[in-house]
Write a structure and sequence with these properties.
Number of domains: 2
Strand content: 15-25%
Number of strands: 12
Distance between the termini: 18 Å
CATH architecture of the largest domain: 3-Layer(aba) Sandwich
CATH class of the largest domain: Alpha Beta
Number of helices: 9
Largest sheet: 5 strands, parallel
Structural class: alpha/beta
Radius of gyration: 24 Å
CATH superfamily of the largest domain: Toll/interleukin-1 receptor homology (TIR) domain
Helix content: 25-40%
């Protein structure tokens, strides 16, 4: 995608050295990893500060989360008069799985499960499970889970984890905190569909091959609107406004090059993601100003906007005589 894949890694406190080694392996494959311990940058030296607001702010800024599920607790429970004991994760690790799946989606939350660890019913999607059934991998039921038998063997999962991340990075995720998915859908309906209708009837375009180029930026910043205007000016696009039979008029930028009538659009609605990111990161928490979190979030939103548009274009059949090209905006776009 042209950007790093940002991964946050959670574990119990006594597994710090394990996830540090894991992060180094992943970073050798172009992942940029953050350990959970690095999320809590305090504003003062007070030993007591709220962890939850920081987690709510920071988790949505990542592309993927990896949770190391180790048998750190001995748990006893009674159901229907039957008492059973098993090994499980720390309660804070269970809580972080919930936060990550809600913020990033199940397909972008990866659990590394020690084979002795009991997975709770809601995670594996089955109620009334038995002791043996509880040790089944959750992957078969929608949550990505890699199993291992000892910490010493954890490094053997590196290749599988990277392959999974590379694949899922190209997949639209319907469950995600951010504005990108909804704004991309709105843009598809309000601009792409309407410009296709417009070009089908536009008199000055009738003798040319028609092309619509959608350029999605790699990054969203507060200067995005100024950058878009400069791009149109630099590459000689003219603004036009065309009345529509239904709804409001449509405005677009175009130029004629050789035998092609080219409409170019850089979606301005993606700017909604900038405000969304700023709103989420303004949650009051015991941390310092963190530009890395904002940059991660805005890169992720731009990527998700792009993936959503790609999925919509594949799903729906538009004008057969109009070529629609969706790509990423960079210095070599034209």
């Amino acid at each position: 995608m042209g950007t790093n894949t940002h991964v946050v890694i959670f574990s119990s406190g006594n597994q710090y050295s394990t996830i540090l080694q894991l992060s180094r392996k992943l970073e050798s494959s172009k992942c940029k990893c953050t350990l959970w311990t690095d999320l809590f940058t305090r504003q003062n030296e007070d030993n007591k500060f709220a962890l939850l607001p920081t987690l709510l702010k920071k988790i949505p800024t990542f592309d993927f989360a990896i949770i190391l599920a180790t048998p750190d607790e001995s748990i006893s429970r009674t159901r229907n008069g039957i008492t059973e004991t098993f090994q499980g994760m720390r309660d804070n690790v269970i809580f972080e799985i919930g936060l990550c799946t809600m913020a990033l989606g199940c397909n972008r939350t990866i659990i590394l499960q020690h084979k002795k660890v009991h997975l709770f019913d809601d995670l594996i999607g089955v109620s009334g499970i038995t002791q043996n059934e509880s040790l089944l991998s959750a992957s078969a039921l929608g949550v990505k889970c890699f199993t291992y038998s000892s910490i010493a063997q954890l490094h053997l999962l590196h290749k599988d984890i990277i392959e999974y991340i590379n694949y899922e990075s190209q997949v639209f995720s319907p469950v995600v905190i951010g504005a990108a998915c909804s704004t991309a859908t709105g843009y598809f309906n309000m601009f792409i569909k309407r410009i296709i209708t417009c070009l089908s009837d536009l008199e000055i375009a009738q003798n040319y091959k028609k092309e619509v180029d959608i350029l999605v930026p790699y990054y969203i910043g507060n200067h995005i609107f100024h950058d878009i205007k400069d791009f149109y000016d630099k590459y000689g696009f003219e603004k036009a406004t065309q009345p529509m039979n239904s709804g409001r008029d449509i405005s677009f930028y175009y130029k004629i090059k050789e035998n092609r009538f080219i409409v170019c659009d850089i979606p301005t609605s993606i700017g909604a993601s900038y405000q969304m990111a700023r709103d989420i990161l303004s949650i009051d928490a015991a941390d310092i100003i963190d530009t890395d979190s904002e940059n991660r979030f805005l890169e992720k939103e731009a990527n998700m906007f792009f993936l959503t548009l790609k999925k919509l274009l594949i799903k729906e059949t538009l004008g057969n005589d109009i070529e629609i090209i969706i790509s990423r905006l960079n210095k070599n776009s034209y």
